[in-house]
């Protein structure tokens, strides 16, 4: 019996068949007890990782909201501020939705939206930096955090394909 080490949301692949280890019937659990225990252990580590990432994204969204309060109210800045706030907070909303996915395909779809929103957020932050509308280390720190989140989410998406 082969266990595919890649996680698919909360779904696993054993001998080419997808299953959710929390939804196994008792008879399957008793036949594959060793594999079941390994899946539960690895699945719980995966769940902890996903919760850690959720907290990181939530904190990032709060940083974006705080930044948006500090931006000037001229026309260009208002447009960037609106778009940045929408995309920066949307990452968190869509990641939470991904965590509630009912299937691997739904998890992948929601995670893909998160990647797109993270990329857009990074783009708006880059525009703020290069246009010098806002200057300072705080903005650079938020931009660096956005790149890190983008890399994490893109990597997570690749692993579940």
Q: Largest beta sheet, briefly?
A: 3 strands, antiparallel
CATH-scheme architecture: Up-down Bundle
Low-confidence stretches: 1-8, 24-29
Structural class by secondary-structure content:
mainly alpha
CATH class: Mainly Alpha
Radius of gyration (Å): 19 Å
Order of helices and strands: EEEHHHHH
Descriptive terms for the model:
single chain, about 160 residues, mainly alpha, de novo design (two linked rop proteins), three-stranded antiparallel β-sheet, 5 helices, about 10% strand
Quick summary:
With 161 residues, this protein is mainly alpha-helical. It has one domain (3-159): Up-down Bundle (de novo design (two linked rop proteins)). It has helices spanning 26-31, 33-70, 75-99, 104-131, 137-159; strands at 3-8, 11-14, 17-19.
Structure explained in plain terms:
By secondary structure, this protein is mainly alpha-helical. It has one domain (3-159): de novo design (two linked rop proteins). The protein is built from 5 helices and 3 strands. The chain has a 3-stranded antiparallel β-sheet. β1 and β2 form a beta hairpin. α2 packs antiparallel against α3. The longest helix has 38 residues, at 33-70. It is elongated, with a radius of gyration of 19 Å. The two termini are 21 Å apart.
List the topology elements:
Elements: E1 3-8, E2 11-14, E3 17-19, H1 26-31, H2 33-70, H3 75-99, H4 104-131, H5 137-159
Helix pairs in contact: 2-3, 2-5, 3-4, 4-5
């Amino acid at each position: 019996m082969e266990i595919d080490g890649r996680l698919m949301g909360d779904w696993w692949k054993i001998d080419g068949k997808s299953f959710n280890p929390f939804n196994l019937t008792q008879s399957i659990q008793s036949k594959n007890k060793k594999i079941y225990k390994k899946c539960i252990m690895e699945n719980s580590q995966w769940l902890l990782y996903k919760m850690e990432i959720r907290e990181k994204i939530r904190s990032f969204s709060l940083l974006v909201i705080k930044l948006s309060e500090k931006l000037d109210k001229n026309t260009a800045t208002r447009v960037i501020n609106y778009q940045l706030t929408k995309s920066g907070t949307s990452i968190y909303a869509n990641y939470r939705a991904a965590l509630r996915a009912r299937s691997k395909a739904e998890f992948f779809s929601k995670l893909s939206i998160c990647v797109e929103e993270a990329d857009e957020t990074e783009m708006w932050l880059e525009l703020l930096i290069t246009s010098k509308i806002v200057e300072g280390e705080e903005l650079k720190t938020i931009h660096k955090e956005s790149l890190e989140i983008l890399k994490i989410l893109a990597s997570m998406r690749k692993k579940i394909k």
